[in-house]
Structures are given as structure tokens and as C-alpha cells.
Amino acid sequence: MNKAARFIKQALIIMFSLIWFLTITVSARGQDPDDLLRQKGIVLPALPGRLGSYTAVVRSGNLLYLSGKGPVRADGSDVTGKLGKDLDISEGYAAARLCGLAQLSALKENLGKLSRIKQIIKVTGFVNGTDSFYGQPMVMDGYSDLMTEIFGTRGIHARSAVGVAALPKGWPVEVEMIVEIGP
């Protein structure tokens, strides 16, 4: 794919993300997140096992700190590959969305119901890419768009998108987040 075609593809992804963001922010306002997931036919995956000596969620006051999650398909298999080599931005976007579903599973298991989430505060995404891959923000939009799709304005968050040389299990993306909860 030549530079002009890549630029057009990336511009279309950005435009789609903006339209999607505006649409879902309006549509999700005031709806119960669990009901919205059911209405959209989104099934949360089973939580994968830990890869080390840590816990999935730590609570401090009204904040939940979630450990990083990678992209796991509905069948339990991992998405693997390096952005800019094995995967393109749209595939990375889909992988980041899967990371979001895994985080929602951890939240649901911890809280019982997603309506207790008051605000998604901070998201940090690690994107496994080549040295010349600079599309980390567009990949991470897959995660961010999911959070606003499900939580509306409560899903809008601060975010970092960091390029890395490798991730556990060969994942293309891993995401951690901080969430404020209510009663």
C-alpha cells in the first residue's frame, strides 16, 4: 500500500471514529450499561487467568485500578501480532476493543453491575508496533470508543497511548485503566 492510500485509510478511520464517538455519546446517555450491552448483543468474555503475581483489580476509596488486559477472542484465543508488520490500524482497533471487553468483565465481576461506574478516569494503552509505527492513538480509539459507547459521557477519559517493542503472549495491545465508582 503506497503512502497516499495509507493516508486516506487513516483519515477515514479518524473520521469514522469521530462520527462513532458523537453517535454513541448521545445514544448511551442515561442508559444502564448492562442493559445496553444486552441490547447491542455484546457478550462479555470470561476473564483469562493472570500471567504473574498480581490481582486484576485494586480498590482505593472510590477508585478501582485495573491491571492490564490483552485482546482475547470469544473462543478464548489470544490476538497476536505487531502493528505495522502483522496487523494494520483497523485490526489493532479491533484488538483494543477486545481489551475493553475484558476490562468490562473484570469490572462486572468486581462490582456486580456496571451501573456503579461513575466515570472512566484514565486509560493507558500499550501498543506493540514496529519502530516506524506511529498509529498508537488510532489503535487505542478502539478501546475509548467502546467505553463511550457503553457509558456515554461517563466513558470519556484521559488517555495515554504508548508504543512498545513487545507485550506478553505476543499481544498487539494491552490496556489498563482507573475507574471511579459510586454506591
UniProtKB/TrEMBL annotation:
Q: Which residues form the Endoribonuclease L-PSP/chorismate mutase-like domain?
A: 39-162
> What InterPro entries is this protein classified in?
Endoribo_LPSP/chorism_mut-like, RutC-like_sf
Superkingdom field: Bacteria
Any Pfam family from its record, for instance, is YjgF_endoribonc
PANTHER family per the UniProt record, alphabetical: ENDORIBONUCLEASE L-PSP_CHORISMATE MUTASE-LIKE DOMAIN-CONTAINING PROTEIN, ENDORIBONUCLEASE-RELATED
Q: What is this protein called?
A: RidA family protein
